[in-house]
Amino acid sequence: MSKTIVFIPSRLASTRCPNKPLADINGKSMILRIYENVKNMTDYDVCVAAGDPEIVEEIVKNGGEAILTDPTLPSGSDRIYAALQKIDPDGTKYDRAVSFQGDAINVNPNAITALVELQEKTGADVTTPVKIMDEKDYYQPNFVKVAAGFKEGEDEARALYFSRSLIPFDRDADNKREIYDHVGIYVYKVESLKKFISSPVGILEKREMLEQLRVMELGMSIYVKLLKEIKLIKEAPADVDTPEELELCRKYIK
C-alpha cells in the first residue's frame, strides 16, 4: 500500500501580493485555511513546506505540521523535495508526494484523490489536473495550456506538451475544440520527484518558464485529469495572485 504526503509550499516573498500566506481572511490566515482544507477533506498526511519561520509558527501554533526550508529555493517542487528530505530522510515512509499550491485558497482538495487514483491506474511519473479554459484567456500567457488527446467520453489522457501559447492549433477554424487550462497541483512518485529535482533546468523549461517541461524533456510521463469544477465556492477566485483577488476571497470565504 503506497503512502502519500501532501505538501503545501509557501513563502512570504511575492511581488504582486506581499505576505499573502499570512493575510487575514475573516479571522484566519490564508495558509492556515488552505492547510485545514486539505487536512479536513483528505485522508493524507499534510505538511506546509515553508520558506519563512513566520509561516511555520502560524501553522504549528494552530496544531499543524510545517517544515522550514531554504527561502531561496527556486520553485515549489524544490521546496517540497527539501521538506520531504527532512521529514523522510531515509526515503522509507512515503512513495508519493503532492504539491498543493500555497495560495490555492479555494481549490477543492478532493482533486488530490482523483490524481492519486490516476497515478495508481497509469503508473505515471506525475499527474496533474486540467479544466476547460475560458475563451477570454486563450491568448493570456499567464494561463498555461495543455495539449492532451482526450478520447470521447473520457477525462484522463497523457499530456503531450504545456505552453503559454495557445495549443493545440485547430486547422479547421469552423470546428472549435476545447482548450485545456492547467491547474497547478502535482502528484509525484517520490523517485520521479528526485530525478526531476536533481536534473538541470531543461531547454524548453527555460524558454517557457514552465517546470513541468523538464519532466517531459527527461522522458518522464505526465497524465492529466479533466475536472469539471475545481472550486469550493463558485464566486471566489481559485487562488490568490493579486490584492484584488484577496479582497474577493474575504467577501465570499467565511
Note down, in words, how this protein is organized:
By secondary structure, this protein is of the alpha/beta class. Helix content is 30%, strand content 22%. The strands form 2 sheets. Strands 7-10-8-9-12 form a 5-stranded mixed beta barrel. Strand 2 and strand 3 (28-29) form a beta hairpin. The longest helix has 13 residues, at 110-122.
Helices and strands in order:
Layout lengths: L3 E7 L13 E2 L2 E2 H12 L3 E6 L2 H8 L5 E3 L7 H12 L8 E5 L9 H13 L3 E7 L12 E4 L7 E8 L16 E3 L2 E5 H9 L4 H6 L3 H6 L4 E5 L16 H10 L2
Parallel strand pairs: 1-4, 1-6, 4-5, 7-12
Antiparallel strand pairs: 2-3, 6-11, 7-10, 7-11, 8-9, 8-10, 9-12
What characteristic shape results from the CA principal axes? globular
- Briefly note the structural class of the backbone: alpha/beta
Largest sheet: 5 strands, mixed, barrel
Flag low-confidence runs: none
Sheet with most strands: strand arrangement: 7-10-8-9-12
Helix content class: 25-40%
Overall pLDDT confidence: 93
| Multimerization state | single chain
Overall number of strands: 12
User: Radius of gyration from the CA trace?
Assistant: 18 Å
Helix and strand sequence: EEEHEHEHEHEEEEEHHHEH
> Could you tell me the strand content as a percent range?
15-25%
Q: State the separation between the terminal residues, measured CA to CA.
A: 37 Å
Count, helices: 8
